[in-house]
UniProtKB/TrEMBL annotation, chain A:
<keyword id="KW-0602">Photosynthesis</keyword>
<comment type="function">
    <text>Catalyzes the reduction of geranylgeranyl diphosphate to phytyl diphosphate, providing phytol for both tocopherol and chlorophyll synthesis.</text>
</comment>
<dbReference type="InterPro" id="IPR011774">
    <property type="entry name" value="Geranylgeranyl_Rdtase_pln/cyn"/>
</dbReference>
<dbReference type="GO" id="GO:0045550">
    <property type="term" value="F:geranylgeranyl reductase activity"/>
</dbReference>
<dbReference type="GO" id="GO:0015979">
    <property type="term" value="P:photosynthesis"/>
</dbReference>
<keyword id="KW-0149">Chlorophyll biosynthesis</keyword>
<dbReference type="InterPro" id="IPR036188">
    <property type="entry name" value="FAD/NAD-bd_sf"/>
</dbReference>
<dbReference type="InterPro" id="IPR010253">
    <property type="entry name" value="BchP_ChlP_pln/prok"/>
</dbReference>
<comment type="pathway">
    <text>Porphyrin-containing compound metabolism; chlorophyll biosynthesis.</text>
</comment>
From TrEMBL, chain B:
<protein>
    <recommendedName>
        <fullName>Lil3 protein</fullName>
    </recommendedName>
</protein>
<keyword id="KW-1133">Transmembrane helix</keyword>
<keyword id="KW-0812">Transmembrane</keyword>
<dbReference type="GO" id="GO:0016020">
    <property type="term" value="C:membrane"/>
</dbReference>
<keyword id="KW-0472">Membrane</keyword>
Amino acid sequence: MAALSSAAVAGQNSDFAGLRLASTASVGRNVARRRSLQMVDEFDLPLEIIDRRVTKMKMISPSNVAVDIGRTLKPHEYIGMVRREVLDAYLRDRATHAGATVINGLFLKMDSPPAGSGERYKIYYNEYSSSKSGTGEKKEMEVDAVVGADGANSRVAKEIGAGDYEYAIAFQERVKIPDAKMEYYKDRAEMYVGDDVSPDFYGWVFPKCDHVAVGTGTVTHKSDIKRFQAATRLRARDKIAGGKIIRVEAHPIPEHPRPRRVLNRVALVGDAAGYVTKCSGEGIYFAAKSGRMCAEAIVEGSAQGTRMIDEADLRNYLKKFDKTYWPTYKVLDVLQKVFYRSNSAREAFVEMCGDDYVQKMTFDSYLYKRVVPGNPLDDLKLAINTVGSLVRAGALKREMTRLAS
Amino acid sequence: MASSLSPSLPATFSTLSSKSHHHSHSMQISFFQRKLSSLIIAKSSYTVSEVEATNGPLKQEEKQVEDKSLNTNELGVDIAEAQVFKDPKWRGGTWDLVQFQKGGVTDWDAVIDAEARRRKWLEDNPEASSTNEPVIFDTSIIPWWAWVKRYHLPEAELLNGRAAMVGFFMAYFVDSLSGIGLVDQMGNFFCKILLLIAVGGVMLVRKNEDIEKLKKLFDETTFYDKQWQATWQEDSQIISKNK
């Protein structure tokens, strides 16, 4: 959704008929998401859609060692919490103003022309106009290019045989807690790590407009998700006591890009392509950015809409995206591999997060989407501290195993 | 009713108890009921606290089971017990180093033991995090030499022993085959390579399983890259197909 809207806006300055199929069926993740400053600036998001500004985070280790993060944030820096329904509606409206035609419909399938022929694609979809109710009417449309932004269970991806990816299941409960307890979460988000909460992800308590979202996720043990959720609730028990669950939601989160992201004149962006980082599970910014990049590549490749694009133009978007964000993805992958391995690694991780330099680097890269090499001396100190933390945690782990036997 | 402690216990309960009676094995059963209007349904039961006399610091575990509380949501959730880690040396969310003094200096080994025990306890019995008494213990307060003495030195001794044995045997073997003495072997390039392999092997492969682990590790480091490159593998195929 975010991807396609920004794609439409990117094409606004040229002679384009930007059509958008905004499916009600894919209303998708109605969860509030974190937003970063980079996204707010780059996509000119109005500050009204941000429900809350989170400036404090608490990382809690398996043995409940709590570390406060956010000391290094400057007064104007924050992590914005938005509701997807609000953000998506805003982006859709903006796309409409930019000249896109928004159709409330569900993509069903499409007929692809033979490769290299230059003929148009035929899209079959269900249109849900306000007059008719229920199933909507079947319609067809012919288009030159298709940008698939229909999320993790993308049908466009299926049409082009993009292949599968491993995915995590993110499970979340929205809990309305008493005002006194909500005060604690006014601008604070919490992250819980531990084998009890998730074997390969983290549990969280994020504040929304007037309630909190308590959730967790996993890739490898999806059938145990309820158990992990119960453990997350236990860890936060005293802070959400007296709360009432008002909503339960779950969503798949891709772990890596699909084997195929572009085929002839069809491209995938956002979750459909699998652009979610490891370790933090961030996908909204990359969805919007990839949508924009794809649209820009189409605009450029078609010389402002004067000639038909081909696959090479779409591959330009892939090349640009991969080159710009590969370091971010790789670094987060390494972090996940090193620090989410086991409880002892997570203890070391939380210990490391207490360090000011780590916090500054983390926030700089998260808020501004850049992997910035810092001062080399500080980096060396950080490396030594990391090794130290991991070694100590590992040594304690050996003691623990000795105790168990 | 206040809980009465058996005389052998120096520690005190910091929570309210309403009933207690003695066991012949100096075990205590005390009551703790906490009413929570929370989203957790609880079974009504009594609490049991066991006291174990160990060589180290005494540790009292309290099992608390909340009674039936207001069920404010439709989801039935279990998790009815809360076990809390308690230890006389654990104060204010960290280990009280004053209590670890032995002969005027802090007994770091005991601190390491205590922390390992705490982590093991919490791994088996996850506990709610608390805001009024957050855990702030940081393992870096234990000085580096305490860790080195306890963990690195024994292992270093083992590895050096292995390296020495391998080195001695290889030197003898090469000498018997080629007649080159030890000093001349060190000057030879091929022998230097063998030395590197021997040292590296001794350090990396400490158990038989390590070979498999190393192979998996190497695959892991490049796996993510391969997943990202997947879309580019088709590049050449597509171009040739379109021609």
